[in-house]
Amino acid sequence: MAKSHGKKFVDIVDMARKQVQECTIEDMIRRRDAGDRFLLIDVREESEYAAGRIPGAIHIGKGVIERDIEEKVPDPATPLVLYCGGGYRSALAALNLKLMGYTSVISMDGGFRGWNDRGLEVDRSPKS
Fold first, then answer.
1. What is the residue extent of each domain of the chain?
2. Rounded to whole angstroms, how far apart are CA atoms 122 and 74?
3. Could you tell me which CATH class the domain 8-117 is placed in?
4. Distances (CA, A) of 60 to 11, 24, 26, 72, 113
5. Active-site residue among 84, 95, 105, 108?
């Protein structure tokens, strides 16, 4: 079930969405299946990531992504697809990465909830 969000939060997400590229879950699957190379980044909280994630995703939480991205992804031209629970936090994170000079950042609308709702594969293996 989608979380209810406050109006001011939704307003800043809407502003971010106007400034970043978004894709659907189906777009991401098509790109992956076509062999497109991109880094899939889960920006949810550590506990959310630990409970289950899209296979192949790495975790860089929204709370630390601006701090850690340069170390984990030093090339700002690296294609990145970000996702969160539904597409709000990933849009905000994508905008910040764009402002930091990352040139190929996409936020996946629908996020993990949409992925899970479609019955797609979920990685639930323990992560250390």
1. 8-117
2. 28
3. alpha beta
4. 24, 20, 23, 9, 18
5. 84
pLDDT tens sequence for the chain (128 residues): 556 889 999 999 999 999 999 999 999 999 999 999 999 999 999 999 999 999 999 999 999 999 999 999 999 999 999 999 999 999 999 999 999 999 999 999 999 999 999 999 999 998 75
The H-assigned helical ranges of the chain are 7-17, 25-33, 46-51, 65-72, 88-99, 111-117
Sequence letter at residue 126: P
Within 10 A of 72 (CB to CB), how many other CB atoms are there? 13
> The pTM is what?
0.93
Residue linked to tokens 């409970």: 51
Question: Active site includes 23?
Answer: no
